[in-house]
């Protein structure tokens, strides 16, 4: 990943597509773009393997849109990140069996996971990454965006439930649940860091 993005940026610099002072930022941008493409391929492959591509796409939309603004646990290398994301997608597909109840039970599951997600957002969002500290203004903006995204997905989940699209409601439930887990793991990691210092 690092070598590929460095190679591409060096090529763009030699071809005068980017300037020397843009090399570092361009390299980072390429790494993120390549990582997102790989994550999308991982998600699509797992969705197809489980015969649930549309459910996986909805889960991916819920999970990624909330993760961007809420934060949470991040692996310390791209390899670990890809493995964690593959495990997350697999957990969402396996979890759809457990959360695929219908009717009132599913409405209750949506309500509980939404309340857990809302608690995590109000208590901790956005969770900073040590490599990218946020300003007070950015934190405020990210928290507001995470709340609005959460509201959007909650309303979408309720709408899907009313339309009896239970398998898609499950995707929203699993998205809320797994983002909350990432936030709780990060909170535990931060707590352990404080204990060590």
Task: Provide structural commentary.
This protein has helices spanning 2-14, 23-49, 53-70, 78-98, 104-124, 136-162, 166-196. With 197 residues, the chain is mostly helical. The longest helix has 31 residues, at 166-196. The model has no long low-confidence stretch (mean pLDDT 90).
Structural class: mainly alpha
Which percent band covers the strand fraction?
under 5%
- The N- and C-terminal alpha carbons lie at a distance of 33 Å
> What's the gyration radius in Å?
19 Å
Oligomer category: single chain
Largest sheet: none
- Which stretches are poorly predicted, pLDDT < 50 over at least 5 residues? none
- The succession of helices and strands, N to C, reads HHHHHHH
Mean pLDDT value:
90
From the spread of the alpha carbons, the general shape counts as: globular
Separate helix tally: 7
Number of strands: 0
* Helical residue percent band: over 70%
For this entry, give a set of tags:
197 residues, single chain, globular
